[in-house]
Amino acid sequence: MHDSYQVTAKYYDGAYAAKQGLVDLPFYLELAEKSPGPVLEIACGTGRVLLPIARKGLEIHGVDNSRPMLEILNKNLQKESAEVRGKVTLHEGDMRGFRLGRKFPLVIIPFRPMQHMHTVDDQIRALKTAAMHLTDDGILAFDVFYPKFELINTKIGEEVPEMEWKSNLDPSAMVRRYFRKDSVDKINQVFSFTFVYRTFKDNKVIAEETEALQLSFYTYPHLRALFLLAGLEIVEEYGSFAKTPMDNGAEEMIFLLRNAG
Question: What is the pLDDT of residues 62-121, one digit of tens each?
C-alpha cells in the first residue's frame, strides 16, 4: 500500500463537491445501470463514483492503492445504509498488478487515474490488469483529458486559484486550493505540479498544506497504440461526457473497450 494522496485525501471530497463542470458521474452511472453487474472500479478513491453506483442497488468492487483515500472511503461508507454498505467490497491494490481472481461485465477507471501511469510500461500494465478482469463480453470504460498543448508550457511556477469550499472541521473557515505547475517533461509527456491547500478564517491563513503530484498526458494515437499492445479494441469513443464525437472540439478522450477477439 502507498500513502499517495496523504494530504489531498483530506480535502478531496470538499474540493470535488465544489468543482464546477465535473459531469462524469451520470455517464458512469448509466453504464453501471445498463450492466448486469457486478462493477469493478479501479482507483476508486473516496467513493465519488463508487457510492452513487452502490446507492442504485448495484454490486460494486473498488480497488485503490492509496491508504488515506481508502480510509476516507471507509468513513463515508459508515454513513450509508446497511443495504448500500452490503453492495460494496473494497480491495487494496495497485492498478498495475492487482488480481482479484474474478471477472466483471463492467470495469471502470473514472476521472483520469490512467494519467497517474507515467511510463508506457505502467500504462500497458494498468490496461492489461483491467482487461484481465473483464468477462468475455465485458466493457472497460475510462477517460483522460484531451491535452491543450498551447497551455502545457505556460504559467510554470505560478499559483493559480482553482476552487474554495467550507472547511469540514470548522464551517466558519474556508479552504482554497491552488494549482502550481512546477515543470513539464515533453519527451515523456508528464508534467509535475503542486496542490496548495490554504485554510482561511477572517481572511487570514490559519493552515497550509501542499502535495506534489505528476500527471501524464496522452495523444489519441498514443492511446490507440496502447490498446493494441494491451489486446483491447474500441467499442465506442467520445470527446465529452455528453457523447459528442472525438474530434477537434473534444475536451476529453473517453473510451469503451473490450478484449480483442
Answer: 999 999 999 999 999 999 999 999 999 999 999 999 999 999 999 999 999 999 999 999
Q: Are residues 142 and 154 in the same domain?
A: no
C-beta of residue 110 within 8 angstroms of C-beta of residue 142 = yes
Residue 96: give the domain boundaries.
Answer: 8-146+218-259
109 & 187 share domain: no
Q: Which of 149, 142, 67 is nearest to 109 (CA)?
A: 142
| 108 & 229 share domain | yes
Domain count, the chain: 2
252, three cell numbers: 476529453
HEC secondary structure over the chain = CECCCCCHHHHHHHHHHHCCCCCCHHHHHHHHHHCCCCEEEECCCCCCCHHHHHHCCCCEEEEECEHHHHHHHHHHHHCCCHHHHCCEEEEECCCCCCCCCCCEEEEEECCCHHHHCCCHHHHHHHHHHHHHCEEEEEEEEEEEECCCHHHHCCCECCEEEEEEEECCCCCCCEEEEEEEEEEEECCCCEEEEEEEEEEEECCEEEEEEEEEEEEECCCHHHHHHHHHHHCEEEEEEECCCCCCCCCCCCCEEEEEEEECC
Report pLDDT digits (tens) over 232-248.
999 999 999 999 999 99
Same domain, 36 and 138: yes
Burial of 62 (0-12, 13-18, 19+ CB in 10 A): buried
Q: Are residues 116 and 231 in the same domain?
A: yes
